[in-house]
Amino acid sequence: MHYGRQPQKIIKWVEIATKTEFDPVEQVYVDVISKSNFDLKIAALRKFVSTLALSGKVDIQETDTLASLLTPDHSTVVVRAWSRNTASKGKIQARTAYEYLSEIYLCMARNGHCPASLKKHLGVNQFLQSGKKARKGMGASARKFCEGLLGSRTQTLTLLSMHVQLRNQARAIMVKAKAAGREMTAHEITQVRQIGAVAAFAALETRGAPIRIENALNLIMIGPARTFLRPTEKTNHATIQLAPKDTKNEVEIWAPINRDNMNGLEVIEWYLTSIRPLFEHSDESIYLFPAVGDSTPLAYRTFLGWFKRHSRAAGLPMTPHNFRHGLASLLVQKNPGRWDLLERLLDDTPMTAIRNYGWVNKRAKRLEVQKYILDLSDLS
After folding, report:
1. Rounded to two decimals, what is the model's pTM?
2. Given Cys at both, which of 108, 248, 275, 282 links 36, Cβ 3.0 to 4.6 Å?
3. Domain count within the chain
4. What number of helices (H) and strands (E) belong to the chain?
């Protein structure tokens, strides 16, 4: 889908919507929003525009202003399309739809355009209301994943050791080619790149911190702005180091990845020496995960395809975000009531942790009660 002149106009709208504080000394607006929230607003507006384009109700190429697209009639078309499309290309979950429309509402208001029509949709549309309700807890698909994880030791072990399993799989491809006395084929290089990148990401998530995928793909390992620090003579561990401006919750994240911790650091170092150089522009890239065709960070959609494919092959179909949900659920099950541990794991507020994982805590407490009931049989 081509948007003509729209992308730059969308970015301009979001810039105005997010730079809300004016510094009278420097006479400039201060950027006070995280990159992830900025990107969320971009995604929301682009989804609105692309849905409108797919509807055939307006010619996007002939539209000069974003405001002319964000009309009451057009918002009705978009919301109707979102609520009725539950299976085909372009579908959107109710939770995401509600979040997107809320962000668009804010962008419209701060750009001086009346968002009354969006307010009405957000308040009365059943599809959006179900999305609002879903935001109060874990999404249905994520909960289904966690329930399967909590009920299966095999799945739990697969989650926690996926980085090692995938590293071994990639190594086997490389060893096979070497044993045959030949270079890897183009197909083998593609496979190894994909599997190795997913293995390194899995190591970051399980042995470092379950950071969001957008943060992981933008980790910088070279230069003064590094957010991924490799081991040194003085620090025999790698470190994930994110500033508040880089995270969705606007909190600092500092997480070491220690050696001899289920091979987490070892897998990452293997990725750096054996896999990352297979990316054509890796020498020019400052990113831990470079793109395939240039020195920019690896694109989310590209990595998502790799991750889904190879996690499925590893025996645990999942999305990158499932690492956060899965690890958090396992931690609560093992330590009911310890919201402080979950707060540190996710770098999120206790309120958010309780909202998303309260159901796991209740189950764990129930099991504790059942053990006490069982002990009553000793009343002889």
Report:
1. 0.76
2. 248
3. 2
4. 15, 5
